[in-house]
Amino acid sequence: MDNEGDPRILFAAERTLFAWNRTGLSLMAFGFVVERFGLYLELQNIHKSLEVQRYLSFIGGLGFVLLGTFVAIYSVFQHRHFLQTLHQMEIPNGYNTRAAMYINAVVGFMGLMLSLYLVLGIV
Length: 123
What we know:
The chain is mainly α. Helices cover about 80% and strands about 0% of the residues. It has three helices and no strands. It is rod-shaped, with a radius of gyration of 20 Å.
């Protein structure tokens, strides 16, 4: 079967890009929950003697947020590289191939802002 001129290839790539978007968002959300759970324990005075737990939850949570940010930004580069391999016939006329990349780039930028917020909040 000849796939040249088949727009389903482009749409499959976009679905993959948005799957990476969901993965990045999930990692960021999980990281935020991990980081805030340490703060919750500190505020509840449940573990008075384990101050190191607060910092471990901060580092772990921030790590997940940064990982999600990396996934969102890196997927934009991967998708852009893939688009360069497509023939013009595989892209429908008038179709904006950059919209999905912009969405992922904004998610990555928001992840960086969340990381900055968490770092400034701990200082």
